[in-house]
């Protein structure tokens, strides 16, 4: 294979939901372009990433030193997995201290290679990398693993703090008229309580978003054809090139694990799915970070049982239990539930972590009950699987809005981790989507349309390039032309 040219440096925030799309992007660039790819992160994350790379991968994994205890965080807290939610912002703030080491790292790469990297692609929380890139004459982009729509709603909320000085529970985003009104129950709890002191909004207003405009553009892991409104918001707001280049997704094999053993092997899971009829299984998972309350879990179990449908449910300890605690079926689930489910072979309870992409790509799977994290949404729509939405946090509430109101591929079941939910309502939504109802059929049709949009966006054939392929080409052309200009100027 020919020697790889130019270096592309990728730098995700230290959370599974950020590292996964960055790793997918790294592999995508390695596969589709002849560039060297360097993925930077803190030592523990790099150690975890190593086994996720294919044996023949030439991606460089580079460590940047970080000691969490220097910032009042527990020792070895290099990933949000090991942190309670309220401390995540502390990790984001602490990461700003990586500035000098990151700059040094880019200088060292420049020295080793005789040229600065072609570009730096950094996380949405690492706006500060744009100043470093400017200083060192390197092309820079922010990469968002969120939807354009979800991030646009969030961005608007962050910059319009305080948000709750409105006299009704329903309000419009002042600079995002394309989105319908937001209900207070769709706000993440930090924003909801805001009296002007939400640490996330303060961080973004003061330290992060003002740096974004120094970037040379924003890349989104999304598709222009179904996320146009949100992308438009950023084009208007930032006046920067906004390029949807997705979806870039990881296969199950490459999924960086959430630090725990998977609850079931892919083989066993697929073996179980193979015994089920076409489009008969509901897959239930709330992502890598969220979990529901004990009473919600009880109702969900009762709803799944009463629905009579086949299901795979990834069960994580309910709120209030240690995330690493043993599986306590007797305490968390209705009496005899696990035995009944096992006996009837109707359900598969998976502890903590399931091979999600393999599951969603199986022909027996009909519907996904999901918290609507953007990776999960993309994985579902890539396989034409409609969604029952139960958003839990962050921009997931707005993802559901996009999916339900604009794309018609989702119905919302519940909101948040403290809402009251009745098993009868769960059964009703499952039947609405999984049965041959007018709504269910319509959702399946629209989910298949979304799948086609995704396939087209990523098509790279002789005579046809999809919108996401063109956007990534366009990004690298801009980076190459800046690099050429810099080299010419330096030679003069
Ligand atoms: N995931 C998985 N198995 C699980 C739970 C999650 O493989 O049991 C993967 C999932 O495929 C997705 C990622 O973890 O790629 C979760 O990202 P998402 O944006 O959906 O949600 P987050 O975890 O960031 O809230």
Shape: globular
In which range does the helix fraction lie?
40-55%
Whole-number mean pLDDT: 92
**Main sheet overview:** 7 strands, parallel
Q: How many E-type strands?
A: 17
Distinct ligand kinds:
uridine-5'-diphosphate
Rg, alpha carbons = 22 Å
What does this entry look like structurally?
Keywords: Glycosyltransferase, Transferase. This is Glycosyltransferase. This protein has helices at 16-32, 43-49, 88-95, 99-113, 129-135, 148-159, 189-192, 199-212, 228-238, 266-274, 294-307, 329-332, 337-344, 356-360, 374-381, 396-407, 423-434, 438-457, 467-491, and strands at 5-11, 35-41, 60-63, 119-123, 139-144, 170-171, 182-183, 218-220, 242-244, 281-285, 310-315, 347-351, 365-370, 387-389, 410-412, 460-461, 464-465. The protein is of the alpha/beta class and 492 residues long. The strands form 4 sheets. It has a 7-stranded parallel sheet with strand order 3-2-1-4-5-8-9, sandwiched between helices. It has a 6-stranded parallel sheet with strand order 12-11-10-13-14-15, with helices on both faces. The chain has a two-stranded antiparallel sheet with strand order 6-7. Helix 9 links the parallel strand 8 (218-220) and strand 9. Helix 11 crosses helix 17. The longest helix is centred in the last third of the chain and has 25 residues, at 467-491. The chain is globular and about 75 Å long. The mean pLDDT is 92. Bound molecules: uridine-5'-diphosphate. The site of uridine-5'-diphosphate (UDP) has 19 residues, from helix 1, helix 14 and helix 15.
């Amino acid at each position: 294979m020919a020697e790889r040219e130019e270096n592309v440096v990728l730098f995700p925030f230290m959370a599974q939901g950020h590292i996964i799309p960055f790793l997918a992007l790294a592999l995508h660039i390695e596969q589709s372009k002849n560039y060297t790819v360097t993925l930077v992160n803190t030592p523990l994350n790099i150690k975890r990433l190593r086994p996720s790379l294919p044996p023949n991968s030439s991606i460089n994994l580079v460590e940047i030193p970080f000691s969490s205890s220097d910032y009042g965080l527990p020792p070895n807290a290099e990933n949000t997995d090991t942190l309670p939610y309220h401390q995540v912002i502390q990790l984001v703030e602490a990461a700003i201290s990586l500035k000098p080491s990151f700059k040094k790292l880019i200088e060292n790469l420049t020295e080793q290679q005789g040229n600065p990297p072609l570009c730096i692609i950094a996380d949405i929380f690492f706006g500060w990398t744009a100043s470093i890139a400017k200083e060192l004459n390197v092309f820079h982009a922010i990469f968002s693993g969120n939807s354009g729509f979800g991030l646009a709603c969030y961005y608007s909320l962050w910059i319009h703090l305080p948000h709750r000085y409105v006299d009704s529970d329903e309000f419009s985003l002042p600079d995002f008229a394309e989105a319908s009104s937001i209900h207070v129950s769709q706000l993440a709890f930090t924003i909801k309580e805001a009296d002007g002191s939400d640490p996330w909004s303060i961080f973004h207003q003061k330290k992060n978003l003002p740096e974004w405009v120094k970037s040379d553009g924003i890349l989104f892991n999304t598709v222009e054809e179904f996320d146009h409104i949100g992308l438009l918001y950023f084009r208007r707001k930032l006046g920067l090139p906004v390029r949807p280049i997705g979806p870039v997704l990881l296969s199950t094999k490459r999924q960086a694990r959430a630090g725990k053993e998977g609850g079931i092997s892919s083989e066993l899971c697929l073996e179980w799915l193979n015994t089920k009829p076409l489009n008969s299984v509901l897959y239930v998972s709330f992502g890598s970070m969220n979990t529901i309350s004990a009473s919600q879990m009880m109702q969900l179990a009762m709803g799944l049982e009463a629905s009579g449908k086949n299901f795979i449910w990834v069960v994580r300890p309910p709120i209030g239990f240690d995330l690493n605690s043993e599986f306590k079926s007797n305490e968390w689930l209705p009496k005899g539930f696990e035995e009944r489910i096992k006996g009837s072979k109707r359900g598969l309870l998976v502890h903590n972590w399931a091979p999600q992409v393999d599951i969603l790509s199986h022909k027996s799977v009909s519907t996904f009950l999901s918290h609507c994290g953007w990776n999960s949404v993309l994985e579902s729509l890539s396989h034409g699987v409609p969604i029952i939405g139960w958003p839990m946090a962050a921009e997931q509430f707005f993802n559901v809005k996009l999916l339900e109101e604009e794309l018609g591929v989702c119905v919302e079941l519940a909101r948040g981790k403290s809402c009251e939910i009745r098993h009868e309502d769960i059964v009703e939504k499952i039947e609405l989507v999984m049965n041959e109802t007018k709504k269910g059929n319509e959702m399946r049709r629209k989910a298949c349309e979304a799948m086609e949009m995704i396939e087209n966006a990523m098509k790279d054939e002789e005579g046809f390039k999809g919108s996401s392929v063109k956007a990534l080409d366009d990004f690298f052309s801009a980076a190459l032309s800046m690099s050429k200009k810099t080299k010419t100027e330096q030679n003069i």
